[in-house]
Amino acid sequence: MAEQGSSTKQLVPTLGFGDLMGAAVGQIIGAGIMSLMPSAIATTGRSVFMSFLVAAVLTCCTAIPAIFITSVVKLRGGIYTQLHMVGGDLFAGMYVIIYIMSNMSVSMYGLSLASYLTDLFQIDAKWDKWIALVILTAFLILNLIGLDVFAKVQNLLVIVLIGSLIMFGVMGIGKVNWSTYFQHDQYWMPNGVMGMLEAGGLLVFATGGATTILNYGSEAKNPTRDMPLVIIISTLCVAVMYAILSIVAAGVLPYEQVAGKNLTVVAAHIMPQWGYYVFIIGGAGCALASTLNNSLASKPKPMMQMCDDGWLPQSLAALNKKNVPWKIQLILYVIGVVCVVSGLSTSMLSNMCILSTGVTTIVMNICTARLPKLVPNAWAKSKFKVSQGLLNVLCGISALASAFNVYLNASSLSKGLLLFNVVIIAASFVFGMVRSKSVHMDVSYEEL
Fold first, then answer.
1. Long-range interactions of 140-144: CB distance < 8 A, separation 24+
2. DSSP per position, 181-196
3. Neighbours of 389 (CB within 10 A)
4. What is the DSSP secondary structure assignment for residue 316, as one 8-state letter?
5. Residue 320: which residues within 8 A CB-CB, separation 6 or more?
6. Which DSSP category does 15 fall into?
7. 302-338, pLDDT tens digit by residue?
8. CA dihedral 237, 234, 79, 87 (to 10 degrees)
9. With contact defined as beta carbons under 8 Å apart, do 190 and 44 qualify?
10. What HEC string does 261-305 produce?
11. Integer CA distances (angstroms), 261 to 107, 250, 338, in order
C-alpha cells in the first residue's frame, strides 16, 4: 500500500480545460516544428507538408483509444494506467522499462533550445551543452515549485508561441516560390514516396504530444469531459498549422539552405530584424520551453503509479509540500543531464525508444475494444459511446495505424538503433514476466 503523501491519490485536481489545452499544444509544437522539421525537410524536401498530413492521420488514428478511455474513467497513472487497465499486469510491467528509457528525450528539448539561443546571440556552438544544462536546471526548479505555477507559466508560453508562429506564417507565405514549389524535380520527394512516408512516421513524434495530458488524470478538474476534447482539438489544429508553416520552411529558400537546418535560417530571410528576434524568443524559444516544461510536469505521474504498484521503490514517489514528486523529478533531471553530456543528437534521442513505445501502443489500441466489458456502467454514460462492432473496427484501424508507424520508423533506423530498440523490448518483456509475479497492482482508474 502506498505511503501517505506519496501516492497518486494525494494529487490535487487543479487543471481546467484551458490548462490542459496549454499543456497539449505546448507539448505538440515544441517537439515538432522546432526539433524535427529540419530532418523531415532533409528527407523529403518540399513535400514535407504531405509528411505532416500523414503524421496527422496516423496520430488521430492512434489516439482513438485514448479518446474513448478518457471519456469514461480518470486515469491516476496516466498512460501507464491505461495500458494496465486494458492489457494487464505483464504489459504494464513491460511499459515500466520502456517508459523510463523513453524519458531520455527530455534532454532533446534542452539541447534544441540551447541551439536556438546560440544562433540568436551568435555564441560558439561548443557552449550548447552548458546552456542546455542551465535550461534543464531552471525548469527543474520551476516544476518543483508546484503545479499551479507550472500551469500559469505554460499558458503564457503557449500564448506567445502561437502568436509568434502565426507571424512566421503570415510573413512567409507570400514569399514562397509557388512557381516551382510543386514541380517534381530532385527536391520534391528526393527519396520517393517511401521517404515522404518515413518522414511522416518520424513526425508522428511531433504531432502526437496531446495524449501526454493523460498523465494529468489525478490533477484535472473534469478529466472525462475535458481530456477527449483537448486531444481532438489540439491535434487537428496544430497539424493544420504545421502543414502551412512547413510550406514556408521548405518553399522560400533553396533546398540546400534549409535541409537539416533550424528555422532561424528561413526566419532571418522573411522577417525584419525585430520580427526575427520575436520569432526566435517567442516562437522557437517558447515552443521548446513549453514542451520541456510540460514534460517535466507530466512524466513523473506514471512513475508515481509504478511506485504505488510495486514496480519501483515506493520511497521514490515522495511528494514535497507543493505536492510535487521531487525525487522522480530529480531522476528525470539526471537522465537529461547524462544525455546532454554524452553528446547524443536530437534525432537519435527521438528514435531511441520509438519502436518499443510503438509496440505498447499497438497492444493498447487492440485491447481498448474490451472497454465496454471492463467499465460497463461508465461506458453506457460516455458521450463517445459506440456499438461494440464499431469500437472493434476503430480499435483495429488504430492498431494498424500504429503498426504502420512502427514499420515506417523501423525502416529509417540505423542497424544500431534498431538493435537498441529490440534489446529494450526484450529486456522489458523479461522484466514484466519476472516482476509481475511479486507486485501487487492497484486499480488506478476511477469511474466518475
1. 140/296, 140/329, 140/330, 140/333, 142/293, 143/293, 143/296, 143/297, 143/324, 143/329, 144/320, 144/322, 144/324, 144/326, 144/329
2. HT--STTBSTTHHHHH
3. 9
4. G
5. 144, 326
6. B
7. 999 999 999 999 899 998 888 889 999 999 898 888 8
8. -50
9. yes
10. CCCHHHHHHHCCHHHHHHHHHHHHHHHHHHHHHHHHHHCHHHHHH
11. 19, 11, 25
Residue where the block lists cell 524568443: 281
CA distance 270 to 268: 6
pTM of the prediction?
0.81
CA angle (429, 68, 96) in 5-degree steps: 20
CA–chain centroid gap for 52, Å, is: 15
> Residue 47, SS3?
coil
At 323, is the secondary structure helix, strand, or coil?
coil
CB 67 within 8 A of CB 384: yes
The 3-class SS string of 106-138 reads: HHHHHHHHHHHHHHHCCCCHHHHHHHHHHHHHH
> How many CB atoms are closer than 10 A to CB 109?
31
Q: Are 161 and 26 in contact (CB under 8 A)?
A: yes
* pLDDT tens digits for range 177-211: 888 888 888 888 888 888 888 888 778 777 777 88
**Residue with the three cell numbers 505554460:** 154
Q: How far apart are CA 352 and CA 421, in angstroms?
A: 7
| CB atoms inside a 10 Å sphere around CB 410 | 17
Q: Which of helix, strand or coil describes residue 5?
A: coil
Helix (H) or strand (E) holding 21: helix 17-29
Q: What count of residues does the chain have?
A: 448
Burial of 399 (0-12, 13-18, 19+ CB in 10 A): buried
Residue 75 identity (one-letter amino acid): L
Is the separation of the CB atoms in 431 and 438 below 8 Å?
A: no
For residue 446, give the 3-state DSSP assignment.
strand
Give every residue of the chain whose pLDDT is below 50, as ranges: 1-5
Question: Could you identify the residue written with the cell 513526425?
Answer: 203
Residue type, 322: K
Phi, psi of 445 (to 5 degrees): -120, 150
Phi and psi at 15, nearest 5°, equal -100, 125
8 Å CB contact between 391 and 358: no
d(CA 9, CA 269): 52
The pLDDT of residue 350 is: 63
| Spatial separation of the C-alpha atoms in residues 217 and 13, rounded to whole Å | 8
- Show the cell assigned to 252: 522560400
